[in-house]
Design goal:
17% strand; four-stranded mixed beta sheet; six-stranded mixed beta sheet; Purple Acid Phosphatase, chain A, domain 2; alpha/beta; 2 domains; binds manganese (II) ion; 310 residues
Length: 310
């Protein structure tokens, strides 16, 4: 059975503490459990104080059959940030703007060039999603069509190439839309003069949404993930994005959403988010999965963030 772990973002001390709490111990440089394995939801890099340690721990577990992992948007962004744009000299597939450089700054600062190369080589091998029959894991949204589009575009060995990255960073390309939806989650554009400010202080004109619920009957205040109680109680447009996920489908685990709640709980009977904002003094969160179709709040295991910010 599996212990699924949410976004870590360089918080290696909390990761080691969480693994110990779950009964994993280090043996010849790799954390193992006698009977269980970890699944990482992605977002290993950026923000936190010990990014190389997080990548080393997760990668060694993945390479020694002690863990599985999916790609997060921060790994995807890192690959695009470090891949030259074949069409534009001296440009990269993710533009080196102030905002993008700031988001990636701790990763750039903490890795040596060689370590970064090794990390990127591992990120290239991470699948967009895992479907293990009785459970599914994806960084943001279980969009089966998008996952198929991505899987059809990767190399035969499952890894992604510079050509994949070029397409996946070209707005309008089906691969771009697929990556946006699967790794970043569908977003709903706010009415013209309305904005929200995210946890990084960025002003946004779009909100992340509860993609798994039908938009009918939802309001601007209710449909966000996390919810935005300050927004209007007017109904959202009927053509708002949604990827409905029915209660009879296997449980799906995601990260990505910076949930603020002090007490983690499933979002639905078969949907759980494991990102509780460790990078913003929240906590690192795991779910101990024993094969149940109906998820339980008792199965969440957490470690509070330490105050060490880089
Ligand atoms: Mn994240």
């Amino acid at each position: 059975m599996f212990d699924i772990i949410g976004d870590i973002h360089g918080h290696a001390d909390e990761l080691v503490e969480l693994l110990a709490k779950l009964g994993y111990s280090e043996q010849s440089g790799c954390f193992r459990h006698p009977t269980r394995r970890v699944i990482f939801c992605g977002d290993f890099v950026d923000r936190g104080p010990h990014i190389p340690d997080v990548v080393r721990i997760a990668k060694s577990m993945a390479e020694n059959d002690a863990a599985l992992a999916v790609m997060g948007n921060h790994e995807f962004n890192a690959l695009a940030y470090h891949t030259p744009d074949p069409a534009v000299p001296n440009q990269f597939l993710r533009v080196h703007s102030k905002k993008n450089e700031h988001q990636h700054s701790q990763t750039l600062r903490q890795f040596t060039d060689d370590e970064l190369e090794t990390a990127l080589d591992w990120f290239r091998t991470l699948p967009p999603a895992l479907d293990l029959g009785n459970l599914r894991v994806v960084h943001a949204c279980w969009d089966s069509a998008g996952i198929e589009t991505i899987n059809a575009a990767v190399n035969q060995d499952g890894s992604i190439t510079a050509a994949f990255l070029k397409q996946a960073t070209t707005p309008g390309d089906p691969l771009f839309e697929a990556v946006e939806c699967v790794m970043k989650g569908p977003e709903l554009a706010l009415p013209d003069d309305v904005t929200v400010t995210d946890k990084e202080g960025n002003v946004r004109r779009r909100i992340r949404i509860r993609w798994y619920d039908e938009p009918t009957g939802e309001t601007w205040a209710s449909y966000g993930l996390p919810v935005n109680p300050g927004l209007s109680k007017e109904p959202i447009p009927i053509d708002a994005p949604a990827v409905p996920y029915s209660a009879d489908q296997p449980p799906v685990f995601v990260g990505h959403y910076w949930l603020p709640n002090p007490t983690p709980a499933p979002l639905k009977s078969n949907i759980a988010c494991l990102d509780y904002s460790v990078a913003k003094l929240g906590f690192l969160c795991a779910y101990r999965f024993d094969g149940e179709q109906s998820l339980s709040a008792d199965h969440f295991v957490t470690v509070p963030a330490k105050e060490t910010q880089p």
